[in-house]
Each structure stands twice: as C-alpha cells, then as structure tokens.
Design brief:
10-stranded mixed sheet, about 5% helix
C-alpha cells in the first residue's frame, strides 16, 4: 500500500498545455480590406502547444512572422511550455484580409485562436486608434 501512495505522489513535469491570451488589440485599419492584430499567448503548462489557425467574424485571418524585415505567412506557430508567443508590431502578427466591414475604433472584433493541444480560445479584440502603442511595447 505504501508503494502505491509513493507512486501516486510522483508528478510529471509534462503537464498539459494551458494557454491564455492577453493584451489583444487591433489598430483601426487605414485600409478597407486589410488590418493587423496583436496579442500575447501565454502557456503556463508543461507541454508545448501550437497555434494552427485563426478565424474571425470580420474576414480571413492568417498568422505572419517577420524575418529580416520581410513578412511571410506561416501555417503554425509554436507556443513553448512555460513560455509565450508574442504578436507585436514589426514581429509576429495577425493579418486580417478581405474584410467584410472596416472595424472602427471603440468596436470589438471576435477572433478564434485554434491550438493543436488546447482547442479553440475565443478572444474579444478591441479596436484601438491607428496610432495606438501599448505600454507593454507590443
């Protein structure tokens, strides 16, 4: 009986991925057909996760990364265990295209982030001024 108790007490460092989203915003787009979005995904779990796609009620959304000042679409982005995936101006970002309507400052855009381990996380993304710069730097 003691052996079973000892084994039950042995936890694994590989806990499930546990993602949350903070700092989400969209600068009011200057174009009628395109916009960008920024946010931070935090994974407090012991297992890595992966952002596999993004959907929204306002249009098509793709994830982009910036490499050597050139942006390119990516199919998935890793969210490390006990780490973050940061979308910020000049780096990784969400690209909204073929907008059904032009989001205006003060509105909120619904975005669904689809993860390989954590499933779908729905985010309410406030539309800020076109020149908005968050205090966190992203």
């Amino acid at each position: 009986m003691t052996g079973a108790l000892v084994l039950a007490g042995c936890g694994s460092e590989d806990s499930e991925a546990e993602v949350s989203v903070s700092g989400a915003y969209m600068p009011q787009p200057v174009s009628d057909s395109m916009a960008a979005g920024y946010l931070t995904v935090t994974n407090k779990g012991g297992t890595k996760d992966e952002l596999t796609s993004v959907t929204s009620d306002v249009g098509e959304v793709t994830a982009h990364e910036t490499v050597d000042s050139s942006m390119q679409e990516v199919k998935e982005l890793p969210v490390p265990a006990h780490g973050q995936l940061v979308f910020k101006s000049g780096g990784n970002h969400l690209m909204f295209e073929k907008l059904k309507r032009k989001p205006m400052q003060g509105e909120t855009v619904t975005v669904k982030l689809h993860f390989s381990e954590s499933g779908t996380v729905t985010v309410k993304m406030p539309v800020k001024s076109a020149t908005y710069s968050p205090k966190t730097g992203h």
